[in-house]
Design goal:
The protein has 294 residues and is an alpha/beta fold. It contains 9 helices and 8 strands. It binds NADPH dihydro-nicotinamide-adenine-dinucleotide phosphate. Belongs to the short-chain dehydrogenases/reductases (SDR) family.
């Protein structure tokens, strides 16, 4: 057998029909997550979920041209429309994935927004959009895709969270214990996030023991959602973990981050590809941490 045929056979065995979806993959950390998954040899299809078709197609072309430097075969790479936080868009994405592949093996929830410090939009007006995209959007999209993930093999959900989501942002011990409770459910988590939003709107959030960051709250909620899904989906063979990419040089940080985005991508890629994966963990800088540290 020639070496190229042997390589093709090995690729087919490893990658056979494995599908990975990365949200917000047209730039920043998400782009490098998609690129590194494409280069891993473990997938036959990589899908970039992006809200802008031109940016999505450009990212696909960029990844495809980088794959040409590798010995063939390499996975197919495509773009599908996704506006995170828009339920109709989530449902359309699910339908496209179902029709094309019938399943998803890896979902990387990377897309998120963060208002800049210098943004003049008042804190209370930043609250709902931040929670709607980063937390509620991520939850709704994931719930939409769970039936496809349950058909996957060694299926994984990787949530790109942040150190900003640490529990210690909440001054109230009572609130901390609610978020960290073993008995928390998705419905209780939504109620807590709704309560935060209401307190922000009414200007009572500081008095009521919440933190000062909408982004931090959205990421804390994503971390807690990770733990809830990990428990709920264990019986379905889906591992659910989250990570922090570190402070990265991307548009989100106005390029102030010290870490190149390709380095930041590695934590999510590791969770998406490592053998003998754990579940329900927070992973940062190559260590599994106590992810609800106080
Ligand atoms: P960027 O702002 O560079 O990229 C964000 C990506 O998400 C873009 O592709 C953007 O698309 C997409 N996106 C945002 N909102 C939506 C939406 N509603 N629907 C669809 N796509 C959307 O951010 P980073 O690469 O820095 O961040 C990636 C992840 O890492 C995020 O979850 C972030 O919170 C997290 N993180 C980042 C850190 C950092 O230092 N950079 C630190 C800790 C966590 P578009 O181009 O259309 O805007």
């Amino acid at each position: 057998m020639s070496s190229s045929i042997a390589a093709a056979a090995a690729f087919t065995a490893q990658a056979s029909n494995r599908i990975a979806l990365v949200t917000g993959a047209n730039k920043g950390i998400g782009f490098y997550i998609a690129l590194q998954l494409a280069m891993s040899g473990l997938f036959s299809h990589i899908i970039l979920g992006c809200r802008d078709a031109t940016r999505g197609q450009t990212a696909v072309s960029d990844i495809v041209s980088q794959l040409k430097t590798l010995p063939s075969p390499t996975p197919s790479v495509s773009y599908l429309p996704l506006t995170l936080g828009n339920k109709e868009s989530h449902a359309n994405l699910k339908q496209s994935l179902e029709q094309s592949f019938g399943k998803v093996d890896v979902l990387v929830n990377n897309a998120a927004i963060a208002f800049k410090n210098a943004d003049p939009t008042p804190h209370e007006e930043q609250c709902k959009p931040t929670l709607d995209v980063n937390f509620r959007g991520t939850v709704d999209l994931t719930n939409e895709l769970l039936p496809l993930l349950r058909r996957g093999s060694d299926a994984r959900i990787v949530n790109v969270a942040s150190m900003s989501g640490y529990l210690s942002q909440l001054p109230s011990r009572e609130l901390r214990s609610k978020f960290a409770s073993e008995g928390i459910t998705m419905s209780k988590l939504h109620n807590l996030v709704d309560q935060y939003e209401q307190d922000v709107e009414q200007g009572t959030y500081i008095k009521n023991g919440w933190g000062r960051s909408n982004y931090g709250m959205s990421k804390l909620a994503v971390i807690v959602a990770t733990r809830i899904w990990a428990k709920e989906e264990a019986a379905n063979g889906i591992s659910v973990n989250c990570c922090c990419p570190g402070y990265c040089d991307t548009d989100m940080t106005s390029h102030r981050g010290s870490r190149p985005p390709e380095e930041g991508a590695k934590n999510a890629v590791m969770l998406a590809t490592m053998e003998n994966i754990f579940t329900g963990q927070y992973f940062a800088n190559y260590e599994v941490n106590d992810w609800l540290e106080t």
